[in-house]
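Dear Dr. K.,

Following up on our conversation at the group meeting, I've run the structure prediction for Zinc-binding dehydrogenase from Amycolatopsis pithecellobii. I'm pasting the input sequence below exactly as I used it, so you can double-check it against your construct before we proceed with anything downstream. Let me know if the numbering doesn't match what you have in your notebook.
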Amino acid sequence: NTRIVLAARPDGEPADGDFRMESSSTPTLGRGELLLRTIYLSLDPYMRGRMNAARSYVDPVELGAVMVGATVSEVVESADDAFAPGDVVLAGSGWQEFAVATASQVRRLDPSVAPITTALGVLGMPGFTAYAGVTAIGKPKRGETLVVAAATGPVGATVGQIASALGARTVGIVGGAAKEAVARRFGFDAVIDRKVGELGEALDAAAPDGIDVYFENVGGAVWDAVLPRLNTYARVPVCGLIATLNGPAATSGPAHSPALMRTVLTKSLTIRGFIQDEFRESLTTSFAADMTRWVRDGQVTYLEDITSGLANAPKVFRGMLRGENLGKTIIQVGED
Ligand code: NDP
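The predicted structure tokens came back this morning:
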């Protein structure tokens, strides 16, 4: 069993030496357990937070422990009557070839519904995040303007398409010309390359009537440019802050916090952070029904960025944090 463990806690951007590849014996089954072989491993921004020592909304990965992660896995052996060898499941095996789980820790996937990789992206956690943030918090109305950055990633691209379906005008912010073309294919009404020109001017041109919903995926310079352009009663679902994910945690209020609070007050803003899991009970059923239908009908499309080989996971993960991914980042660990 080849696996990748956390070797050191990163200082800023993760380095290759923060990960270590190891071999261990293939785990053996206890009563009621399943032996799983990883087919696909999902790489997600939240994993960077888990590499820090501090607890955020979940516990950190311990030094020497396998890096966490969602997987699409095949049941190889089963000591549970509900599962048979050959079944494909959504699991949380982490960055390794084999893992043991109980039936309650996995969810069976039906490959006839959609390609199994989608369980890690548009039909999985990132798609659910987009769905929850837009429908439960952002609530764009017909004719309103929604802005989202990281617009070609699994969260951003899905946010844009759901908002379009609800009748909003959508503006996608991306890093680089290649992503600009991709964002247009996802149907964004306007696309801004954050690496070219002045972001504020570009937002003025793309959203001349101001911004009603800003789906916060990145923080940093994009947030600074968006804030003064928010309309009265604008909603800001705060989903992720990847621009500052590698930086040291802010310890005290930045100098512009009084100005921020004045804007929140005078424009009656709703700024609402969320962790997608909060909506698991209330939205899982409607998400599964809506998103499966939208994907089947082609109303929601998706893009995946798949690299072969578990050994490439650290490099690909680091690249994703820098914006080198084009679509949902996935590692193919074993044969499909
Ligand atoms: P993506 O696949 O979109 O990858 C991250 C993207 O972030 C990069 O491709 C890049 O896009 C962009 N990015 C990187 N650095 C910066 C920067 N300095 N400024 C602006 N953009 C930057 O990731 P996901 O779709 O998986 O996740 C998107 C966000 O949603 C993340 O912040 C993530 O943490 C968050 N999230 C939150 C959840 C929750 O429950 N709250 C659940 C899931 C995700 P580009 O090159 O186009 O700028």
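Two things stood out to me. The longest strand covers residues 33-42. The chain has two domains: 2-120+304-332, 125-277.

Best regards,
J.T.
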